[in-house]
Design a protein that fits this description.
alpha+beta, 28% helix, 5 helices, globular, disordered C terminus, Pnp Oxidase, Chain A, 33% strand
């Protein structure tokens, strides 16, 4: 369970899904016999007509994590959005301490191995298409059917039926309007790409400028 103060909790499904789509490289955590296993993978988000979320991905067959995916095993999929250091010098009220602002989404569910070869192939194709779509000249698969089928044998596909979602956008919502705007100016003027990315994310959330009671600690 993720620690989420009330002012950082996000329940807006569109905002949650937008982060997952934009920052689709996730960390998947599972447990076996008291030991934690983690993999870092590109993960696709699907939504059913009734709004339920399903995640799809694939990993190397040599990665033993997939062997613990059973109907009784809960897995955690972590999506991490933009994050950056926040300097107290950006605040109007500077009698405080530094902090780190970020956005993260945790999804819990049960993972199922994809046994159907066509479904596995679709996972690989959909993943490739998603990221090639941003290229000036999208790459086209040059492999023969025999070569593709051979490579698919080296990976294992799986899906996760999401049962619980936790979303935390820690963007300074507990600060005053002036401190939030100072934070945003500081991020935008920073030479660090991560800081500028966080600033752009904040601007899309509509959180800057909200009147809050300033708190001295993060």
């Amino acid at each position: 369970m993720m620690y989420i103060p009330p002012f950082n909790r996000v329940e807006d499904g569109e905002k949650i899904d937008a982060l997952i789509e934009r920052y689709g490289f996730a960390t998947i955590v599972a447990q076996k016999d008291g030991a934690l296993l983690a993999s870092h993978l590109p993960v696709l988000l699907d939504k059913s007509r009734d709004g339920r979320r399903v995640l799809r991905s694939h990993m190397a067959r040599a990665n033993r994590q997939w062997q613990v995916f059973t109907p009784d095993t809960e897995v955690l999929c972590i999506f991490t959005g933009p994050h950056a250091y926040i300097s107290p010098s950006w605040y109007q009220m500077q009698h405080t301490v530094p902090t780190w602002n970020y956005a993260a989404v945790h999804l819990y569910g049960k993972a199922t191995i994809v046994d159907d070869s066509s479904a596995l192939r679709q996972i690989v194709i959909d993943t490739t298409v998603k990221y090639e779509s941003t290229m000036a000249q999208p790459w086209q698969v040059p492999l023969s059917e025999t070569e593709i089928n051979s490579m698919l044998k080296a990976v294992v596909g799986f899906s996760i039926n999401v049962t619980r979602v936790e979303a935390k956008f820690k963007l300074g919502q507990n600060r005053s309007k002036e401190d939030q705007q100072g934070m945003l100016r500081g991020l935008l003027s920073s030479s660090e790409p991560l800081s500028q990315e966080l600033a752009r994310f904040v601007l899309t959330q509509g959180d800057v400028g909200c009147e809050r009671t300033a708190q001295p600690f993060p």
